[in-house]
Design brief:
homodimer, alpha/beta, FAD/NAD(P)-binding domain, Enolase-like, domain 1, 7-stranded mixed beta sheet, 5-stranded antiparallel beta sheet, 14 helices, FAD (chains A, B), NAD(P)/FAD-dependent oxidoreductase (chains A, B), FAD/NAD-linked_Rdtase_dimer_sf (chains A, B)
């Protein structure tokens, strides 16, 4: 690493995917300079501790299930060691040199350290103060929130990072939470052999999803042997033996969890995983130095921070609390970079490229459980709440292509339609590999297409995607 | 089966998927009556001899390849007997009773026999003459064309039907042809253990596809051990021993094929498969009785036959020669049925629903080779020929999602763009399971979306579909 300059055109605090993209787009095809300040690994939570390792742990289980349900193919598994090694490959053994090289290739300087705002266009890092000529971008993301349960912190619970970076599979795991992280972690821990129990405070998993999707994921987990205790939460946690064993690893004895709620009692486990929400990573970011309150950083559709004069401060990714998904953070970052570039060059912000329009009500998301859940746009409930006159069509995915795909194919699909305009507002698909079915719905929702238009978009036979035809036919009645 | 009535509102000749859909849509939500005349099996070529059995034979090989390339999963195969049994299940052991039941449930009468036109609104079948009050729909499809090669017919070559319905895997197979049927048959025959050689008259496989797709399929077949003799065709075929063994099966000794062209010589095989194009199944259809010439039946966008007065004669599916794909035949049939219903009820043909608009330049197709090829709309060459100012963007599919999907993932994707309007004209994807990626492109092409709009359709991370983002970024430059 070279000694950082005192001035850059663009300074990004946080080197995850959103920060990387913002820096890249802000200086592309120009002579502007940029620095990314990162205190951990360039590539961020997603690359090393979240999306990549979790999907690397999940994918072999999916492939095995597909192979086991195909007559003529003999499949065994999982070889846990091989799965963990493949996971290690995807997180590059926590070496970010390829990402640093990417930054260098794109003329972005990487500065190691904790960055914090120190006033207008000023950023402190490692005892030095840097000045940004055009823009400072906040991209620090979030961190796991640990609920205030007696004994929980002292028990050194696993957070999502520990679950994705496990080196041995614990025999017994209790997961606290019922959201995406909790459901995915339950899926891979179970597929790798752990006995898993979920403590879910509410009455359902995946509160933001369509009810049928919640039910199918709960059924899938239950069928895999994961008890889900709905309406339950930890009242207290006890773990007498906890010892650091170096390199951030912890050796702990069994954990006892007192459960309160619908099914009170006591659970014992070898690890407790807390997946009970996220908190903004802004505590030491110096927000007060520019007059901002603590917490998430609010932005407009140009990703410009509200309440700060001069159009120099931006926030992209999870830290702005618009939507906590890597691909949407990157989307915001592309828009943000374009906005910074245009403003730096005194170009008007003309055209749709300069506004993040898709991260409110047109957000795609895939939950890599078994079955997978893929959704975009509004659920029926959200559409009604937003005031739309809503019609829905919902049916099992049962077409030639799904039958051919695997003998145990089970899926379900739903569309949410604005009856006034005939326009598709949202879609949810559940089933094996439906994550790859989602983009068709995303294109339709983002473009605001009517079902009359979609009638002429013919799915190829015999693919799984022919369920689109069934949905349109069912809607027609 | 009941004795057919003398009159129906709608008479459909040919009970394949297109015929079934035309009848269904023409009488839905009405008291109209319909009959389908079928000389073989209701469900047609696609259900028993083409799409379904071929994909049933191909799918296990795909699943095995995916499993073999996933560390942690141990997979063996293929068990040929199990694969053939699964195929038998998909063709219902050539029993069409479930399709006949579907027809009955939808108030469509099934008449067994060979139907032929006998004048205006008249159809002969089994020695009786039926009258159609509103419409006659021709949906007889095509049959395999056998080239005029000395000794070929006498050698009782396999056509696609035989290859999909094989009971034993021949040790050595020569395939004549380089189109979709030939490439798919080569793929499954090889995966089931046959030694396969392809004789391809032209310089490439899959003449209508993008050049990179042709190359990748040729590379895949070659890597699987299939020699492809380009610029070659059979000059003569010899097979001394041929005997019928009943139930349509043939026992034949070895076949000798004299090859002419780029690599002249002699090949010996246990079966020769002819996949050298199709011919319209209209020879005995009585086209002359209504003043039509022999051959394919030309229709307008309402699927109404050109050159026949009175808007009573329609043709859907392969027989009209617009596009020979099951899903597009069904699409035409839906439009046709809607047109028949509207005309029968004296409603105007208002709106896009009453015109087949997607079966010219917006046709999706999946070729289930290894790698798969999925395409929609115009190739770059076709777009230029049609007079568009064309730009293309083409790159390898190499995103987090593809790396996660399988260790050997190799794919490529291309977009064809009208530079004047920024609108997507076509797309081609090559790689494992890209058939399920296609519908997003189909939606975009059919809706005529611009790349500026697609910029806001964000693929979910980390799915394979994120290659869309790479394409859009590459296009932006």
């Amino acid at each position: 690493m070279t000694t950082p300059a005192a001035e850059y055109d663009v300074i990004v605090i946080g080197g995850g995917p959103a920060g990387e993209n913002a820096a890249d787009y802000a200086i592309a095809n120009s002579t502007r300079t940029a620095a990314i300040i990162e205190q951990e690994l360039v590539g961020g939570e997603c690359s090393y501790w979240a999306c990549m390792p979790s999907k690397a742990l999940l994918r072999p289980g999916h492939v095995l299930a597909a192979a086991k349900n195909m007559p003529g193919v003999t499949a065994h598994g999982l070889d846990v060691e091989a799965v963990l090694r493949r996971r290690d490959g995807f997180v590059h053994d926590h070496d970010d040199s390829s990402q640093v090289e990417w930054a260098r290739d794109n003329r972005i300087e990487v500065i190691r350290g904790r960055g914090r705002l120190a006033g207008e266009r000023l950023v402190e890092v490692g005892g030095r103060t840097l000045r940004a000529r055009h823009a400072v971008v906040l991209a620090t993301g979030t961190r796991a929130a640990i609920p205030d349960v007696p004994g929980l912190r002292a028990a050194r619970p696993w957070i999502s990072r520990d679950a994705t970076n496990l080196h041995e599979v614990p025999a017994r795991v209790v997961i606290v939470g019922g959201g995406v992280v909790a459901c995915e972690a339950a899926t891979w821990l179970r597929s790798l052999g752990a006995e898993v129990t979920m403590l879910v405070r509410g009455p359902a998993l995946l509160a933001a999803s369509e009810p049928f999707a919640r039910d199918r994921v709960a059924e899938g987990l239950t069928a895999a042997g994961v008890p889900i205790l709905f309406g339950c939460e930890p009242a207290a946690v006890h773990r007498p033996e906890v010892a650091d064993t170096g390199e951030g690893r912890v050796h702990g004895g069994p954990v006892t969890i007192e459960v309160r709620g619908a099914k009170p009692g006591t659970l014992e486990a070898d690890e407790i995983v807390v997946a009970a929400g996220r908190a903004p990573a802004t505590e030491e970011l110096g927000l007060d130095s520019v007059g901002l309150p603590p917490g998430y950083v609010e932005v407009d559709d140009q990703l410009t921070v509200r309440g700060v004069e001069g159009d120099w401060l931006y926030a992209v990714g999870d830290v702005n609390h618009r939507v906590a998904l890597t691909h949407m953070g990157k989307y915001q970052a592309r828009v943000c970079g374009d906005v910074i570039a245009a403003r730096a060059e005194d170009r008007p912000l003309d055209g749709p490229r300069f506004a993040a329009s898709a991260d409110h009500a047109k957000v795609p998301q895939v939950i890599f459980t078994d079955p997978e859940v893929a959704s975009v746009g509004l659920t029926a409930a959200a559409a009604r709440k937003a005031g739309y006159p809503v019609d829905t069509v919902e049916l099992d995915i049962a077409v030639a292509g799904s039958a051919l795909a695997r003998d145990d194919y089970a899926g379900r699909a739903a569309l949410v339609i604005d009856t006034a305009s005939d326009i598709l507002l949202g879609a949810t698909f559940v089933g094996p590999d439906v994550g790859e079915q989602l983009h068709a719905a995303t294109v339709a929702v983002v473009a605001g297409l009517s079902l009359e238009t979609l009638w002429h978009a013919v799915p190829a036979y015999p693919t799984v995607s022919e369920f689109w035809l069934r949905l349109l036919e069912a809607r027609r009645g």
